[in-house]
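Researcher: We're teaching a course module on how sequence relates to structure. For the next exercise, students receive a sequence and then see the predicted structure as tokens, so they can try to spot secondary structure elements on their own. Here is the exercise chain.
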Amino acid sequence: MNEATLFVRTRPSRGAPAGTSEGELAIIWALSRQRAGRLRTIQPQGAKKRQKARSDRRLSESPSQLWYLLAHVRQPDAHDADVLSECHDCGLVQRLPDASVAAVVLCERCGARLRQVRHNSVVLSAACAAAGLGLFALAFVLPTASVWMQGGRFATSDLVNGPERLSQNGAWALALAVVITLLILPFAKLSTVLAMSLALRFGRVPRWLKACFTALPVFTEWAMVDVFLLGAIIALFRLRAWMLVAFGPALFALGGAAVCSVAVDAALDRAVFWHRVPLGPKSRGARTPTGWLACHGCGLVTHAAEGSKCQRCEQSVHARKHDSVRRTWALIASAALLAIPANVLPVMTITKLGRGGPSTILGGTRELLHVGMWGLALLVFVASILVPLVKLGALSFLLVSTSLRSAAGLGTRTRLFRLVALIGRWSMLDIFATMMLVTLARFGWLGNVMPGLGASAFCGVVVLTMLASRAFDPRLMWDAAGQNPGPAIAPGVTS
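Model: And here is the predicted structure for the students to work with:
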């Protein structure tokens, strides 16, 4: 019997609302133990002490006050809908402190970021998104790079003819991946933020915009302008060994767009945006509520049934990701199988003055070492070889420890998952470098680069590992270890 259950059975009537279930009491017990978010701020020393004192007073509310708060969450409105928050890394439901200054609110148990509080978030995010869209539009009409060879041969590239060149050479999978991650999703991210800011200004948020804003974290993860810039620089430095290379203005425009995208991430307070979206009525004929569930799209914690529609963003609400363990294992196994041809088959075929041949990922690293580019060689080795192996091994370890219901090192394993989710996108570095080489080096026997099957296989490995990290639900680790009281413990984990 865990401590939460003992508390519920021995003190069941301390201010609890009528009809409160045992799982709800366990959540409220956790709140009464002051498992609320920590408030970290950067202020002058005196202001910091005063703010800490005010925060401590807010966090030391009595259990009766917490009961009153939870009783009102049953019928949320615009004023109390964001009081509760569930950590998406460990599953702890906790009360957010009233942050009156710019701050980062962290989970008390695992240290995950629950919210970043920003003043004027809507205005600043809209300004950064508009600037980023303007620079992104410039990058579409300007060349990214130009090269010259002996005899007056000249070639240039832009954001459009790169995917065209790949598809013409049979690498349609690479072309599709480049179009999605370099062209569509960066534009979708900036457009969504700008459109949401304008919609809030005019007081009407359509359903399709709510859906786009809930997908904003996915757009951010898969929008890879910054990865493309680094891959383009690596490709241009490789070409400098046998061509004259000039950086195009589109690279600088894309650099500015990448900075604006980072500024959007820094200025964006998603809670402020969602707080200004009115709650809709509960759907008629709704199923009986099963407990306190958090919407993964907008973060609203309500007393709802599994699979019901969120009152704010209109997405389906689930306690945990559906069939997370099996889906993650399937994606990892597929990525491991594709990793064999990705490292054995050539990613490209290079011809220089009638000589050359196929080149693998490791061969490209050795080539950079031979020309003295130690830093770039290390970067390619880490991003293209080490990172995929680390992701496969780390996710396998997390899945095995979850299936064994291990309670050892939960905090460390959660941080490991965050690292895996963070570094996975940088493996696309080699794909973008290949695209730049194929686009610019097209001079026949003088200098030519053709994509190989290994590049498509490697792209599949990157995509599958990223999908695996998104399919895995880290809350299952805490559920399996018995750390989350409630009716649904570790769904998808076999005993």
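Model: If you want an answer key for the exercise: Residues 3-117 form one domain. The longest strand covers residues 113-117.
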